[in-house]
Design a protein that fits this description.
112 residues; disulfide bond; 3 helices; Hepatocyte Growth Factor; 5 strands; five-stranded antiparallel β-sheet; YutD-like
Length: 112
């Protein structure tokens, strides 16, 4: 389980070991919390994140449905790139959020 911006995510697909939790957390933006799925792909050493909705979600347009993910992959991603798909499973449990905050505080103190 991955925690980002108060939500829990699980890895659905991880091609060529594309998922790196530290890079995902660093690149994650709160605008992505509205999506049911997040696709991450690597190109030129940089991680790009794009949100997709479940096909049954009323907010989904054709291009933002997870079923069109392969079209996105072929049109916008480098051929053969490492990529991953994570699915939002809900709000993060309070205990996990508190643990993540303590770990972040510890890292900040160690860096100073």
């Amino acid at each position: 389980m991955i925690i980002a911006e108060g939500y829990a995510y699980e890895i659905v697909e991880n091609v060529r070991d594309g998922f790196q939790e530290e890079a995902f957390i660093a690149r994650f933006s709160d605008i992505l919390t509205k999506y049911d799925y997040i696709v991450g792909d690597w190109g030129y050493g940089q991680l790009r994140l794009k949100g997709f909705f479940d096909d049954r979600n009323q907010k989904a347009t054709f291009d933002t449905k997870i079923s069109t993910f392969e079209d996105y992959l072929f049109e916008y991603c480098n051929f053969g790139c490492a990529y991953f798909i994570v699915k939002k499973i809900g709000k993060a449990p309070k205990q996990v959020e508190a643990t993540a905050s303590v770990e972040e505080s510890t890292i900040e103190v160690e860096q100073n």
